[in-house]
Carbohydrate ABC transporter permease (Cohnella silvisoli), 293 residues
Amino acid sequence: MIQTSGTYRIFNVLNIIFLSALGLVCIFPLVHVLALSFSNNSAAAAGLVKLWPVGFTTSSYEFILRKPAFLQSIIVTVERVVLGSFVNLLLTMLIAYPLSKEVTAFRFRTVYAWIFVFTILFNGGLIPWYMTIKWTGIMDTLWALVLPGAVPVFNIILLLNFFRGLPKELDESAAIDGASHWIILWRIYVPLSLPAIATISLFTIVGHWNSWFDGLILMKLPEHFPLSTYLQTILVNMDITSMSGKDYEILRDVSDRTAKAAQIFLGALPIIVVYPFLQRFFVKGIVLGSVKG
């Protein structure tokens, strides 16, 4: 018994050491990027920056934040995240609920489920996707960033499996009391599925925030670019034709590496802030939403 207890303690110590080392390896790139963003041009070019800024300066952030287009891209991204997340979550719950029913309650449930799975495996390609959006007349609008991905099939599968894990007696007792499917969904299923909903919310928020390719091909005007698209195009290319005298002064301490580091950190910061509030639901939602077929 003592030997087992000692072995268990040794395993815990080794496990803690391993996970701590793994955590430091994961954090190291972000810390390095943050240090690089606060370092001056010469230190970054010489490769002197590791985990601490060398020649501390905020010039990279001044250069980025002085751009009105940068602030406008943040507004566009926030609008996209709020509207897109609402549409995604609403449609996900409305589709997952009927698909979570048994075949005896929803006769063609399996057929519809496989239709959705088919869209994961096969798609029409980039050109038909682009032409469809163009023909709908929503090009260069916020809806072009939201509607094409309004039905996230992976999230639907995750949530419907979570719904299927809920006790069937809840449905039966609510139906006996005269509750409709709308009441059962919004007053029973949704409150009991907060871990899964928090998980798919995190997927949705991160997906909308990081998406850049659709903004690049669907938006015509730079002021309509979301943040990720703006960082990919405008700031990476460093358009010097539109710079003022103050910008040139700031650029003396800014290099391509430090500017990119500042962009990466600013782009990742909101997700870093949001994730800890949803992390406690994350593992539970993934596990419970994936074990039932």
The chain has two domains: 2-45, 61-288. Residues 289-293 have pLDDT under 50 and may be disordered. Residues 99 and 109 are 6 Å apart (CA to CA). The longest helix spans residues 2-37.
